[in-house]
UniProtKB/TrEMBL annotation:
Domain PPM-type phosphatase: 166-381
Molecular-function annotations in GO: phosphatase activity
Keyword field contains Hydrolase: yes
Annotated Pfam families: SpoIIE
InterPro entries found in the cross-reference section: Bact_Sigma-Reg, PPM-type-like_dom_sf, PPM-type_phosphatase-like_dom
Keyword terms of this UniProt record: Hydrolase
Source superkingdom: Bacteria
Segment forming the signal sequence: none
Protein's name according to its UniProt entry: Serine phosphatase RsbU, regulator of sigma subunit
Keyword Calcium: no
Length: 390
């Protein structure tokens, strides 16, 4: 038992990328005397958790597991169910990105030491699954509840992830409609004291929109990875899109750069994604000077603006598909209703908050299909405290 995390970690390192769940199952049974294990992964909509090891679990057993697993996933805390045997559910999370839940069934209720070891094992499995995701389709197949369009396949592959945690901030994003999204997108990167976040309101629909977004995102990444700041990222992407389409296509984009030492946000507002700040229970749009969308004209030049964050501030960035959503006979979602949805997330972490806003958006549409792509990104600014302090 003492070396259980080490034994599982070694088994994961030696396993093929598509066999991580089986390797973890064997090692956990051997090291901890577990009766069984399973791995549940979150689907693309984050609307449910689905088994990897036992996809044919009977409906009754699956629903019983699913309810407790969902509680673990939402709380990001270990959850016990039963006494003998006892099912222990542990979050599979890496760098703040929620992948799913690990189930370990033990003969008896585990003490704090055993639970701690199991938590370490879940952490090792989450890291291994994140690394293996580029080498196998198995976990992606488990995540999808229906077939993705070609455009959506490209968009999900282009994402950096769906969440990231840091001592100074927590960040999460979500795309909808998850299985048919076309051009809307978000991207981020953490490099030292600089967090870069971009949200794109893609023009058009389907594969053409996805291709345009892919070109734009990769141009911004090229500038960023070469050491360029926001202005260089915007200008390279704008020139790249313009010389591809000669002004016939363009991409509305909001580029943000957060200095994690002091909470200063530099911004380039090149179009229509909307930036809102929630301070306490007050939600207000942050007015930035809008500049030209990327790709509209040759050699467009961009200027920086600055916003200062205070500890406890929450930023939302939403695309036009959220802000301007207007079901027949109703006002645009962003006019009044969205502010209520944002305030309702006040006690939720960003990963839960983006899901809440999307669910409220679907409800506003009376659960009919969204007419436009929608992106929500949520950033909680904790303040520049040192890592490991309260």
């Amino acid at each position: 038992m003492v070396d259980a995390p080490d034994m599982v970690s070694r088994a994961l390192r030696e396993a093929p990328p598509d066999q991580l769940a089986e390797a973890a199952d064997r090692a956990i049974r051997s090291a901890m005397g577990a009766l069984r294990t399973d791995v549940f992964v979150a689907d693309y909509r984050i609307s449910g958790l689905w088994p990897v090891l036992d996809p044919d679990l009977p409906a009754g057993g699956f629903l019983a597991c699913h309810t407790v697993a969902q509680r673990c996933f939402s709380s990001q805390q270990p959850v016990r169910d039963g006494e003998g045997p006892c099912r222990l559910y542990l979050p599979l999370t890496v760098w703040g990105e929620r992948l799913g839940v690990l189930l370990i069934e033990l003969p008896a209720v585990p003490n704090a030491t055993v639970t701690g070891r199991a938590t370490d094992i879940a952490g090792a499995l989450a890291v291994a699954m994140r690394a293996a995701d580029r080498e196998t389709d198995r976990y992606r197949r488990a995540r999808r509840r229906e077939r993705l369009t070609m455009a959506a396949e490209m968009q999900w592959d282009l994402l950096p992830g769906r969440g990231v945690s840091h001592h100074a901030f927590d960040l999460a994003g979500q795309l909808e409609p998850a299985y048919t999204v076309g051009g809307d997108h978000f991207d981020w990167s953490l490099d030292g004291d600089r967090l870069t976040v971009t949200v794109l309101n893609g023009e058009g629909s389907g594969l053409a929109a996805s291709l345009l977004t892919a070109v734009t995102v990769n141009a911004m990444r090229n500038a960023r990875r070469s050491g360029g700041g926001l202005v260089e990222q915007a200008e390279l992407a704008s020139d790249t899109v313009f010389y591809q389409h000669r002004g016939a296509r363009h991409v509305a984009t909001l580029l943000l750069e957060v200095d994690t030492r002091v909470g200063r946000v530099r911004a380039v507002d090149a179009g229509s994604p909307h930036l809102l700040r929630m301070r306490g229970s007050t939600v207000e749009p942050l007015k930035l000077d809008q500049q030209l969308p990327l790709g509209m004209f040759a050699e467009t030049r961009y200027e920086l603006q600055e916003v200062q964050l205070a500890p406890g501030d929450r930023l939302f960035v939403v695309s036009d598909g959220v802000w301007a959503a207007e079901p027949p006979g109703q006002e645009p979602y962003g006019q009044r209703v969205m502010a209520r949805s944002l305030r309702a997330t006040r006690l939720q972490p960003p990963a839960e908050a983006v899901g809440t806003v999307m669910r409220e958006l679907h409800a506003y549409h009376a659960d009919s299909d969204l007419r436009d792509d929608a992106v929500v990104v949520c950033l909680d600014w904790h303040g520049p405290r040192e890592r490991g302090t309260g």
